[in-house]
Brix domain-containing protein
Amino acid sequence: MPQQRKKKRTQKQTVPGDLQPKLPKSFVIRSGAVGRSVCHLVKDVRRIMEPNTAIKLRERRGNKLKDFANMAGPLGVSHIMIFSRTESHLNMRLARFPRGPTLSFHVNEYSLMRDIAATHSKPKSPGTEFSTPPLVVLNNFGSDERHVKLVSTMFQHMFPPINVQTMKLADARRVVLFNRDPETGSIDLRHFIVTVRVTGVSKTIKTLLQANIPDLKNYDDISDYILRGGAGSDSEAEDAPDSTMSLPQNYVGRNNRKSEQRAIRLVEIGPRLNLSLVKIQADLCAGEVLYHSEVKKTPEEAKAIAKRKAQQAASKADRKRQQESNVAKKKDQKKALVTLQRERQREKFGAKSKNSDDEGDEDEDDDDDDEEDINMEEDSDYDME
């Protein structure tokens, strides 16, 4: 008899939800009347945050920050970016759910994705690059100032962390650059896609290698097309040696196999923003101001503010305890009232049942009297006879 085969699981075991690494997710929204251009900017910033963002999120006029905070927990959303406009500035707030902190920026300048595409002679049309999160590059954030460290930490934690030892090269499709100007403190945000090109060959050979069939009707032989003369364009220039590398893994695209020499280029697709940090708050769009670029407080003023906030917190705690005691007292009163009503109903029902029993006894007595009267009449008849 053949040995019975043991069934083995062929599917990969999933890690329980508590053990799975939680990827940062985000909301990118607008608040108030911001104009059509800023609405397009919000959509473009969502493209940067893909695929871990709500790309089709629709805000309503009645939505409040509390509504998004309530949704963030069940959906696993960790960050929110809010664009709003005042008479003088376009503002952007970057906050972390559920308890902050919140970074407030002025958007000094911005360019949409369509504006960046208009500057290229041959704009790159993005395809599947948005299926993977971008790589984050921070430049000039090495200052020892606390607010600079906090800003760099917030920018890093907006995107999933990468492990160089285990990540796939094909996942490196986009780059987000945060460049800080040490003199002014302004931050430039730029968005690129990674392109891989064949190196060491002419433009005509690159066209053939990319499976693009050229127009050969004016050539007698394909060699005439390959060996044609003329000055080359800027795109045909040799790539710099420091931009070429040997691919350590297979990459996306035709003939981009491991160990092949390729030139790596970054093509900007936008949007582009220039930000200035205004203030940092401890909580979710509220709380103590940890840093302010325009308002500076003396130690005495900071101490007085801290004392006032402590008094407000104590007063709030007292009011909360008083409200809880009032609610508990009302619940006890309501419970006592319900108990009293039930007792009254029980007494009323008992009295009705007693009255019905007494009436039943009286009816039985009447029936007995009627029977005695009948018997007496019969006896009298017999006597007369």
